[in-house]
Write a structure and sequence with these properties.
Strand order of the largest sheet: 3-4-2-1-5-6-7-8
Radius of gyration: 21 Å
CATH architecture of the largest domain: 3-Layer(aba) Sandwich
CATH superfamily of the largest domain: Glycogen Phosphorylase B
Helix content: 25-40%
Order of helices and strands: EHEHEEHEHEHEHEHEHEHEHEHEHEHHH
CATH topology of the largest domain: Rossmann fold
CATH class of the largest domain: Alpha Beta
Largest sheet: 8 strands, mixed
Number of domains: 2
Number of helices: 15
Strand content: 15-25%
Structural class: alpha/beta
């Protein structure tokens, strides 16, 4: 199959998400994949450039060295707000160009720009799969535009031949937005059973590198550091904790990084708050192995977090680590009670709960329950299902 993917974020610099895993695994199976992305992180680059030119990146892989995704980045005007408007025009032009040059058998899109993909797919009678891994209109940085984003996504749902969501809560959400229930299917995130294998990974070197002693308890978070991630609150509680054997290890970069660094300096947490920065994906299992307890302490009132289940949850649990998470609706619905996830009401409660878990001696028991829960979600099985869905969409479109 020739598959065209459209998204409104950076394919290369953002952390691996559902679409990266699926695209690379399909590439390894011989399918041709092209992805149109958006240079959303241009502000952080601080380049003196008003207009960016179209770029093509060949043989891109973030997870599997043998995979080869062609990433096409349309040019934009690098000015706040205007960047999105210009991207809409350049993306639509690029989609039409790829339909002509690449002739995809199926188009899959995520986010707001999926509307453009849906229009082009409908015009050229190409099956269109709309994939929801989050509620994209809530991620629009300009809040006054979020109602418009919601309307655009509602209209896009009407155009989709198939709609995929990453969890049950998102499925409920898209149906409430007007999606036809018979077109909606849940395709969950997965894990690499062999890569995220607690018996094969060794966190000792990571602990040694960062000066973590055997008797010290490591709380761990990885991913993009959003301001609503709850990590600043966890760091401040760590500063107040009497137990100095607690350490917080954070892997990733993002909006909250500088403020976390300021907290580290201000409260003298140089040896207790470890900001490791961004790390290659292949190193992540060993970082998780170095932890005792993993965290997802996002603000429970943050709308963006209500319906999603980050892939990191599956990876934490695959490594037999208990997870302390705020009581987010999507997380609770996905993992329930008694499966290795322990819930808190506020991010400020994470440190106290971690101490409680450690003193209870239940870390290993909770970790085993976590691993048992996620073992059924292998990426190979999920890719089999995704491949079947795409082929089915193509077959159904040919009948029309």
């Amino acid at each position: 199959m020739k598959i065209l993917i459209i998204q409104n974020t950076d394919w290369i610099k953002r952390n691996p998400a559902q679409q990266h895993h699926l695209a690379e695994l399909l590439s390894l199976r011989g399918h041709q994949i092209r992805a149109i992305d958006f240079e959303i992180l241009w502000r952080a680059e601080k380049k003196k450039e008003l207009l960016s030119k179209r770029k093509v990146f060949d043989n891109v892989s973030k997870i599997h060295p043998g995979a080869g995704i062609t990433v096409i980045r349309p040019g934009i005007i690098k000015m706040p707000l205007i960047d999105y408007a210009s991207a809409a025009f350049s993306h639509f032009r690029e989609i039409k160009r790829q339909i002509k040059e690449f002739a995809p058998h199926v188009i899959m899109s995520l986010g707001i720009f999926a509307y453009l993909a849906g229009k082009a797919a409908k015009k050229h009678n190409i099956p269109f799969v709309y994939y929801w891994i989050d509620v994209s209109y809530r991620l629009i940085p300009y809040k006054f535009l979020q109602p418009l984003g919601r309307l655009i996504q509602q209209r896009t749902l009407k155009m989709a031949d198939k709609i995929l969501t990453i969890n049950d809560k998102l499925k409920d959400h898209v149906i409430k937005l007007g999606a036809s229930p018979d077109r909606v299917q849940v395709l969950r995130a997965g894990i690499y059973i062999n890569r995220f294998n607690p018996n094969a990974c060794n966190g000792r070197r990571v602990r040694e590198f960062y000066g973590i002693k055997n008797n010290e308890v490591v709380l761990f978070f990885m991913g993009w550091l959003y301001n609503f991630s709850g990590l600043k609150e966890v760091a401040l509680e760590l500063a107040q904790a009497k137990d100095h054997n607690l350490k917080l290890l954070i892997v990733g970069e993002g909006d909250a990084y500088e403020e976390l660094n300021e907290i580290k300096v201000r409260y003298g947490l140089q040896d207790r708050l470890i900001l490791a920065g961004k790390k290659p994906y292949e190193e992540i299992p060993n970082f998780i192995a170095a932890a005792d307890i993993c965290l997802l302490p996002a603000y429970p009132w943050e709308k963006i977090m209500q319906d999603i289940v980050p892939i990191k949850m599956y990876e934490y649990m695959a490594m037999k680590k208990p997870v302390i998470a705020t009581r987010l609706p999507g997380i609770v619905k996905e993992f329930g009670e008694g499966n290795g996830v322990v819930y808190i009401d506020r991010p400020e409660d994470a440190v106290m709960k971690a101490v409680e878990l450690w003193e209870s001696g239940k870390i290993e028991e909770l970790g085993s329950k976590a691993r048992a829960f996620v073992e059924r979600y292998s990426w190979d099985r999920i890719t089999d299902e995704f491949e079947r869905i795409l082929k089915e969409a193509i077959k159904e479109k040919q009948k029309v």
